[in-house]
Structures are given as structure tokens and as C-alpha cells.
């Protein structure tokens, strides 16, 4: 994925591509910023995380997901202890 300078900021409610430590490794996973995460933005010293969308309705659902208990599995931190499934999303043009 190409990250364009100034294409978006990792603010509460935005949706961004998840990746490894390799800047161009984002494929199919994403995350919703529950709080402003300005340290995830593109800068002269960081490739950042590409923002490609925004929650426009249902942020209360994101808040409920964020309130779930989390734990650690292998090297992954903050994994939900119970399965969470997003059953719908819509593109607004």
C-alpha cells in the first residue's frame, strides 16, 4: 500500500491499515483508532499507518469493543479474550 503524505491522520474513529514493522507490508488487516494516535501518522521519520476510512455511525459499538477484556497470545498483545465479529460495513461516497 502506498502511503501518501498528508492523506489522513490517525484520529479517533478513523480506520487504518495494520502492518508489520515493514512500511509496505499492509495487506488485509485493519484497525479502528479508538483514541487519537498521532504517533501513527506519516512523518519524516516514520512511514506511518495509512488511514483509509472513518466510522461515521456506530462509534458506541467501537467503544463497547474497546471495553472488552484483552490478553496476550504468542507475541501479540491486547488480543480480545472473546471473539469479536464485525457483521457489516458500508461505503459512503
Written description of the protein model:
The protein is mainly beta. It has one domain (14-80). Helices cover 9% and strands 22% of the residues. The chain contains 1 helix and 5 strands, in the order βββαββ. The chain has one helix spanning 59-66; strands at 14-17, 30-32, 51-54, 70-73, 76-80. The strands form 2 sheets. The protein has a 3-stranded antiparallel beta sheet, with no helix packed on it. The radius of gyration is 14 Å and the shape is globular. The two termini are 21 Å apart. Mean pLDDT is 88; it is low at 1-5.
Pick out its properties.
single chain, 93 residues, 1 helix
Short description:
By secondary structure, the chain is mostly beta strands. The chain has one helix at residues 59-66; strands at residues 14-17, 30-32, 51-54, 70-73, 76-80.
Q: Rg to the nearest angstrom? A: 14 Å
Strand-and-helix sequence, N→C?
EEEHEE
Main beta sheet strand tally, sense and closure: 3 strands, antiparallel
Strand content: 15-25%
- Going across the biggest sheet, name each strand in turn: 2-1-3
Number of strands: 5
The number of helical elements comes to 1
Uncertain residue segments = 1-5
Helix % is under 10%
Mean pLDDT across the residues is 88
Terminal CA distance reads: 21 Å
Instruction: Classify the secondary structure makeup into a structural class.
Output: mainly beta
Q: How many domains would you count in the coordinates?
A: 1
Shape: globular
